[in-house]
Amino acid sequence: MSVNYGSKRTVVGAHYGVRDWLVQRATAVLMALFTLVLLACVIFSKGPIGYDLWAGIFSSQWMKVLTLSVIVALAWHAWVGVRNVWMDYIKPAGLRLTLQVFTIVWLVACAGWGIQVLWRL
Known about the structure:
Layout (H helix, E strand, L loop, with lengths): L17 H26 L7 H7 L3 H29 L3 H28 L1
Helix pairs in contact: 1-3, 3-4
């Protein structure tokens, strides 16, 4: 017969938080690379900076795919950060759930708007 002293602690998710940490770093790297690519496109372009230049940069399919992936990465990056803030500082579960749902709806709406703007170019 085994005897357990003290409270029983169920340990779940031995790597809890590592995935979120990796997502934050990976999405940050993707956004930084996108910024560098966009900056290079603007610096090495010919002519004045205006609508035609921006439309030309985003007209190629590879740039649209890259921009779409960055929009998704930005939403995911923001979700992980804001969710952690809500979990750390908002203690009432109902209020925290409400804020998390509002955050999800807001981020999906912003990503949808960004995709709509991208496909108009």
